[in-house]
TrEMBL record:
Keywords associated with the record: ATP-binding, Nucleotide-binding, Transport
PROSITE patterns listed in its UniProt record: ABC_TRANSPORTER_1 (PS00211), ABC_TRANSPORTER_2 (PS50893)
UniProt name for this protein: ABC transporter ATP-binding protein
Pfam family, one: ABC_tran
Species name: Sphingomicrobium sediminis
Residues covered by the ABC transporter domain: 7-236
GO molecular function, a single term: ATP binding
Lineage start: Bacteria, Pseudomonadati, Pseudomonadota, Alphaproteobacteria, Sphingomonadales
InterPro entries named among the record's database cross-references: AAA+_ATPase (IPR003593), ABC_transporter-like_ATP-bd (IPR003439), ABC_transporter-like_CS (IPR017871), ABC_transporter_ATP-binding (IPR050763), P-loop_NTPase (IPR027417)
Length: 307
């Protein structure tokens, strides 16, 4: 079993009543022990895929295995192998966090002496709110409670669907610290997020879905290497009387009288040549800063190209 992927998706499709096709023959594997990013624009099909894995939505065709278990033929073990933190904040306002975790553990058939309620509350920094009604918790606290609920049965896979939406910076950092600690203990993490800098920093591998189709699935470093556009912002010793021109420049923008931003393809020209061109035109360089392409650039290129 150890050589099998944590999640295996094979030609998965979903068409809703009315003809809306949310997934179109999607296939990919999530390797065990990784933090795996599942990205895509709104409506791309990410939540549908997650809900199929969770058993909340029936697929139209294809296959899916969770921790080696077919979600149709062995749905009980498949569900026991995955914890889902939904995008929506769902909770019962009349239960305390401690009661919510005890009930969730009971639903999974975990004996009382095996439950980890206190440990999970401490892990998500909710020990002091253990006996407060859930309706009194802040949005960030409720989201952390959802993470704890997803982990009551100690699943080897944790799926986080937009876990930091509406969470402030401090609470977001606390959440990622906990996720990293789970990952360090061997939990496979699947993350969807609109904060692409989070995905770039955290994920070992990233898949991108657009209009229900898989358009990328690569290690994060390889995906980033696809971005060729680089920007250099140059401050010169005097105002620009005209914009410099070069066929290799993709975009030139004047940011101030003596400041311009030049975007170029780094496989065709490098920053040194850009600066030498300005110097040949009679400008002395006062300051230079560059911006390397990031995951947002790659994401926009791929999703626009596949639109």
């Amino acid at each position: 079993m150890t050589d099998k992927p944590a999640i295996a998706i094979d030609q998965l499709s979903k068409t809703y009543a009315g003809g809306k096709q949310a997934l179109d023959n999607v296939s990919f594997d999530v390797p065990r022990g990784q933090i795996f990013g599942l990205l895509g624009p709104n409506g791309a099909g990410k939540s549908t895929l997650i809900n199929i894995l969770a058993g909340l939505v029936n697929k139209t065709s294809g296959k899916a295995h969770v921790w080696g278990f077919d979600i149709d033929e062995d749905h009980r073990n498949a569900k026991a192998s995955i914890g889902i933190v939904p995008q929506e904040i769902l909770f019962d306002p009349f239960f305390t966090p401690a009661e919510a975790l005890e009930i969730q553990a009971g639903l999974y058939g975990i004996p009382k002496d095996k439950r980890r309620t206190a440990e999970l509350l401490e892990a998500v920094k909710l020990t002091d709110k253990a006996n407060a009604y859930a309706r009194t918790l802040s949005g960030g606290m409720k989201r952390r409670l959802l993470v704890a609920k997803a982990m009551v049965h100690s699943p080897p896979i944790l799926v986080l669907d937009e876990p930091t939406a509406g969470v402030d910076i401090d609470l977001r950092q606390q959440l990622w610290d906990y996720v990293r600690s789970l990952h360090a203990r061997g939990v496979t993490v699947v993350l969807t997020t609109h904060y692409l800098e989070e995905a770039e920093e955290l994920c070992d591998r990233i898949a991108i879905i657009n209009h229900g189709k898989l358009i990328a699935n690569e290690p994060t470093r390889d995906l980033l290497s696809k971005a060729q556009d680089k920007e250099v912002v140059v401050t010169c010793d005097k105002p620009f009387s005209s914009m410099p021109s070069d066929d290799r420049f993709k975009k030139i923008e004047q940011l101030g009288d003596d400041v311009i931003a030049i975007t170029y393809a780094k496989d065709k020209v490098h920053a040194g040549e850009v600066l030498r061109l300005l110097e040949r035109e009679g400008y002395d360089i006062v300051d230079v800063r560059t911006r390397e392409p990031d995951l947002e650039d790659v994401f926009l290129d791929l999703t626009r190209g596949a639109a």
